[in-house]
Amino acid sequence: MVIQTVDLSPAREIPSATVDDTSTKEELPIVEIDDKSALKTITAVLENENSEISQDNNINVTTNDNVDEELPPRSQSKNDNYITVKIKDFSGVLEKTEAQMFVFTSETTFADIFVDVSCRFDIELGEFDIIFQDKSFSYNLGGLPDDQTLTSLGIVPDCDRTYWMSLDIFPQKKRKSRDAIKTGLEPVSENENASSHDTSSTFGGKRDFVGLKNRNMTCYLNSFLQGLWFTPEFRNALYNYVYEPGRSNRKSLCHPLQKLFLQQQFSIRDSIETDELIKTFGWEDRETWNQHDIEELCSIFMENLTAEFKGTSLDGIIQALYFGSLDDYVKCLECERVSQRTDDFLVVPLPIRNFGSLLPNPTLEAALNSFVAYEILDGNNMYNCSQCEKPCPAHKGLKFNRLPYILTIQLKRFEYDFIKDRRLKLNDRVAFPYVLDMNSYIETPSPDRRESLKIDMLKPGSMNVEAGRSSHSRPSISLVDPEDNEEPIQSEEGAAGGEKPILEQMTELRNTKGPEIYQLYGVMVHRGGINSGHYYAYIMDFERGKWFRCDDAAVRKATRADIEGAYGGDSDEDKELTSAYMLLYRRFDPDLNLLPYYLNDMPPHLQEMWNATCLLDKACHEEEELAKNTVRMPCLYRDPETNPTLQEKMVAIPKTLTMDEATNFVFKELFPKVEQLPEEGTIRLCRYDKDLEIIENSFDNCEHMFIVTAIRHRPPVTKNEALLLERKDPKLEFDIYRHNDYIFRTSMIDCIQQDLLQVDEIHASPTETVDELMKKVQTRFSITEPITLVANYMSRYCTILGEKHPLSLFKFDRVNNLYFQAGVEEGLSDVMLDFVEQYTRAEIIEIHVQTPANVGAENSSTEEKAATIETDTKVTTPADAKSGAPNQVQPDAVKVSSTSQTGESVKAATAPKKTDTVKAATASGTPETVKATNEPKIVYIPISVNGVTPPSSKDISPDSNVTPAVKDSADKPTGIKALAQKNGHYMKFMNRSETAEEGVYVYTLRIDGQTPLYALSKRVSQLINTNESDFVIYKIDGNETTELRRMTERICTIKPIDRLFVKLEHRLQDGESRLAVCLLNVGCIDKPSEYLTDIVVTLKMNVDEVKSAILKKSETLQNDTNVDASKMRIRKKLRSSPSKIMRSKSKLQDIFTVTSIQTGEVFLQLLDSPCELTDQNYCFIYRNWHPSTGVLDATVEVTVFHDHSESLEDVILSKIRESLGVTNEVELEAAKPDGHYPWNVSARLIQDLGWFSLSPPVKKSLYVYNDELVLFVRDKNEAPKEFYEYQSETSIPTTVRRTVSSIAEAPRREPGLKLNLAQSPPQN
């Protein structure tokens, strides 16, 4: 075995690799090259492998000046046996961060690969794993057998390809922490290394912190949470919070945050989820797709924490930690009087560019100076001084009054460009220091914070020398770590001159300048533009003084160059636009600075939560490890003893199993009660397509291949794949399913019974002939006699001939429908084509049938016969019998698959896609049959569909139900010939069942989509033994019911449709219409109107005939003895409101047209006494409004007589006064309301109506001749109440509310961030 390794780092010397070949015992040279000439050098070394090796083992390669020229082609000899691999440590734990290149042979085992990687990266075996990630799966080489090679993973030698792998590092102390979590809470051992106070809190020099998984677009939340967790004072304060369920009516934000922080501190996983915290926010999945500003999140988060801490021992801790105060002042320059207002602040917003300036502030100190710089008020903008009592020049600005313990600074990078009228992101470079001196920005030092910060409560008990810490007054000193030689990041000045560490600088500045010294420990970075981007954070660990990059789930070490890269760029051409957006500084105070709690410092009330967190974390870790080392696949199977149908179960298959081992493993998972495995070779796994419901391919010749490799070996056409467990008899052989096979959903049909008998799936290779396909069909269905095949070919069905020709010449689709019937007699192909066309075009419809009482009382045999309808499923109409010329099939015919299964059928037959199924015909109209000569021939049969104009409604009346008899003849055809000459539509009633309603049965109707309604009506008439004029067919779509009146309409055009309903009632004839009758209750507030019944009418019916029809149809009116025709009033219903009244001797054609009566409705009024209206009598409705109480009286109908002797307005006014009982001295006003009956308008809209005076003479024209006048009336002198004391807006009708909302609708804008912590009400 020969292993050639190449290092891409030119600055390091790599020790020579040893050759582990016992036959040659020779040592190969090490090549030290740059990245661009790597492939050229590797090629040269490999081509000279069999030649003589130089005495000197080091090959010095001079870099070619023209390295970009085309590389010479690789030799096609033995060199193609090599695999080029690049391996990199992406975690940042190891010293070597560059990718290392390796060249392995195809025979190199995993054990040899681990030895080479261990030597190259200088890491012990057993402390790392190698991960290979392809498009679909991730492989951990450490979990695979040592003697396996890269080729078992599907990695093939390729001179033009380089494979990438990554290292997964497992430090020794991290493994100790896993053991600690498994054993539970244990005290710290005295013999433990003094540099590590607790194995559950820190992993020594190689500590890798826990990341947070991104939930869609929550990177801003993850960065903010990491900043909180790395703040020791906040973390300790949160751990001291005692959660009391039911203490508040709001959800607790601290409780899920405590769980999250415990997981971050003690989890054995690399990253954890934030789902529980997000759920506490009240967010659904769509909220996680909205990215918000991290500063906005900070403000809302702290506001909710402050509210939750109130009334507890932590009350005021958020204000002491994060809030400071600013003085907004104005100083008069003449009297020097200062007027100021003090406001608290959480974040200091610093400008990148000063107002009106195109140059940015180069440093953070310059931005702070601009922030506190005063503005001069002079000229026209002078300050009006109250002491000078005149306008005076003044200074206006901001100054810090009190600085917070944690200083949060926002760099305002998002601004609005008023010139270009657009938002933009400022990516200008702003350098920020590691140590910030704020003494010059505050006049008086901040008071003692020990009490407000509750230091005595938050200080860990293990902050002493005996516990392994240097001192609680030295918070930024690194823990002693013999394995960590990295220097802590210096300040900008100290790093440049090599002067002093940060701790010494802060101590010196505090002693000389003052106490307001701040240390940088967090940088929130935004990468992207104004419309999209990504947040991540650079945060310092106070325990070790090291910086880390927290980028969602990935947490790795950060260098000084990384942090300086967050300063920003000088050019807007930078596509990434990466720059710091928010900075976190902590005040340096040796007496106040804390370190975080450790395991033995935890408050007692967190004991139970800690135990639960460890158990949950362990379970999640085991699940992740299981997902990493297994392949989760849905497995389909049949249990012949319990359920012969296809069942599904999710199975996790270990990746290290071969195909044979995986088959036995899946069998044990699917049949756990079976102790003994089936005989070898009687079970296997196949790839199954769940979308198409077909077997994709079988894994032949893959018995010794890994299951993950075998699955990936033939990429599926669809992603929705599964594994199918097949079983067979030991005497039979498995069929071979190839990826490029034609798949035929084969159905055995019976044209005489008009049904499918059996369905199965058959695979055939494109090279197989039609004769071989027929033999496969005969073998699968156990048929010995010849068969006739019909298949879908180029979007239509045809008879397949040409037995000696391969199937590839037919240009079949991947999945096809194949129908066959035993026999080859004359005319069979015609009948099969006709049946298949109609069967595949048929639709499955649920139909509810209301039957007469005598039909429901029939015996069971009659019911069974009606349910199955085994005979006469082809309906023949009188027009069909007279017609001989077929019509073309409508192109919008819908094809629905059959779901029938029998015997050992694999699955249900599925119909083809929606395609035109037009069969070609010759000019004479006879089928064209040509025998196969040199090419396959296809028989095209003309479609047999009713070809004459369907009869009108008169033709399908009860008198024409019977089909005219056909004269008998001696040579009348029978059997297949009779079916070939028969014409009609496919229709079959199946699966009859009863419903809760008596006399109503439910059928499953399979019907040809081209069937007209009159054919279905005729078949229903035979089914329930009732005349067609005595039932009506309704279409039900959701909650909407529509009567189907046009009998010539085809089933396929009735869309959408959920089900059909056959109701026993009169069917409308020509000129008839169905009229809905509603009861009008004038003066009733609770029930102003209600549906009564519907009647069949014509336009020529007069009012008396309409009243008689209503009395005859409504049982409610029949039972009321006080109702008669003289006390009934009929009026038109127009848009839910009462309209024109039918006078005596008037007809429906006076108020309806031919079109409007089809959907017409009328109101029926029941009067107390007879009241006949003449042409000079009119009715109007009014409602009295009381402004002082906000009450609207019930509706009142008034009848007026107008003979034109006086004005109509005066007549209406006198009638209103008479009805209200008021005198002429009362001034009345009226208004016309909007909306519909009964006009329940809100108080606000009533106030805004256009009121006009009714004092004579009335100037407003009032039209009452169509009986539609509606008025609101009020007393003009009645004083109204305030608007807010009236009734709520809920009484606004729907149409009015829609109008109001559309006017006041605000423009769409980006949704703001909200935390919905309201407690949901308890459910009963």
From TrEMBL:
<keyword id="KW-0378">Hydrolase</keyword>
<feature type="compositionally biased region" description="Low complexity">
    <location>
        <begin position="56"/>
        <end position="65"/>
    </location>
</feature>
<feature type="region of interest" description="Disordered">
    <location>
        <begin position="56"/>
        <end position="76"/>
    </location>
</feature>
<feature type="compositionally biased region" description="Acidic residues">
    <location>
        <begin position="481"/>
        <end position="490"/>
    </location>
</feature>
<keyword id="KW-0645">Protease</keyword>
<comment type="similarity">
    <text>Belongs to the peptidase C19 family.</text>
</comment>
<keyword id="KW-0833">Ubl conjugation pathway</keyword>
<dbReference type="Pfam" id="PF00443">
    <property type="entry name" value="UCH"/>
</dbReference>
<feature type="domain" description="USP">
    <location>
        <begin position="210"/>
        <end position="588"/>
    </location>
</feature>
<feature type="region of interest" description="Disordered">
    <location>
        <begin position="463"/>
        <end position="501"/>
    </location>
</feature>
<feature type="compositionally biased region" description="Polar residues">
    <location>
        <begin position="885"/>
        <end position="904"/>
    </location>
</feature>
<keyword id="KW-0788">Thiol protease</keyword>
<feature type="compositionally biased region" description="Polar residues">
    <location>
        <begin position="950"/>
        <end position="963"/>
    </location>
</feature>
<dbReference type="InterPro" id="IPR001394">
    <property type="entry name" value="Peptidase_C19_UCH"/>
</dbReference>
<dbReference type="InterPro" id="IPR018200">
    <property type="entry name" value="USP_CS"/>
</dbReference>
<dbReference type="InterPro" id="IPR038765">
    <property type="entry name" value="Papain-like_cys_pep_sf"/>
</dbReference>
<feature type="region of interest" description="Disordered">
    <location>
        <begin position="874"/>
        <end position="928"/>
    </location>
</feature>
<dbReference type="InterPro" id="IPR028889">
    <property type="entry name" value="USP"/>
</dbReference>
<feature type="region of interest" description="Disordered">
    <location>
        <begin position="950"/>
        <end position="970"/>
    </location>
</feature>
<dbReference type="InterPro" id="IPR050164">
    <property type="entry name" value="Peptidase_C19"/>
</dbReference>
<dbReference type="Pfam" id="PF19718">
    <property type="entry name" value="USP47_C"/>
</dbReference>
<dbReference type="InterPro" id="IPR045578">
    <property type="entry name" value="USP47_C"/>
</dbReference>
<protein>
    <recommendedName>
        <fullName>Ubiquitin carboxyl-terminal hydrolase 47</fullName>
        <ecNumber>3.4.19.12</ecNumber>
    </recommendedName>
</protein>
